[in-house]
Specification:
Layout lengths: L4 H9 L7 H8 L3 H7 L3 H19 L5 H5 L2 H8 L2 H8 L8 H13 L7 H20 L8 H12 L1
Length: about 160
């Protein structure tokens, strides 16, 4: 399978919608047939890479209680390994793949039991959690993770 690093290099200078297979092949030094051996098209590549990160996130998101819902450190640590790639994916909102939207779904589903299945409160938490993850990836030296704790407490108190 071709390395995904060159794809992300292209995303530093191009919007996803501006990419094409020829450009990717030139950047990765592979032939078009090699690209199509692994991917149906660019949408397939995006769907797979977003799916990979979403699957990693799903195994790390826990909302067993208020404390675990506020603690995103495991997910942030995992995403920190490839923070540039994750932050680039956060900027792509495409039908084939939208990492932020996938994370919002995961967080909302996990948090819903803590707020008696109130979709509105679960969505508020999910959005706050994704913003917190994004902030921590962009500002790794900023250790202010506590605001999410107060958000979680306030949402649970509303339920």
């Amino acid at each position: 399978m071709p390395s995904i690093a060159p794809f992300f290099n292209l995303l530093k200078t191009h919007d996803f919608t501006d990419l094409n297979v020829s450009l990717i092949c030139a950047e990765t030094h592979i032939t078009r047939s090699t690209f199509y051996q692994y991917y149906l098209d660019l949408d397939d590549w995006l769907e797979r890479i977003v799916g990979r990160y979403a699957l990693e996130a799903q195994s790390l998101i826990s909302c067993a209680d208020q404390a675990s819902a506020a603690d995103l450190s495991a997910l942030v640590a995992k995403f920190q390994e490839n923070h540039d790639a994750v932050l680039m994916l956060f900027k792509i909102h495409h039908p084939a793949g939208d990492l932020q939207a996938e994370l919002v779904k995961l967080f909302a589903t996990a948090f819903a039991p803590l707020v008696q299945q109130d979709d509105y409160l679960a969505q508020l938490y999910a959005q706050a959690a994704v913003v917190s993850v994004s902030w921590q990836l962009q500002h790794p030296k900023d250790l202010r993770q506590q605001p999410l704790t107060s958000v979680v407490q306030a949402l649970c108190d509303q339920a």
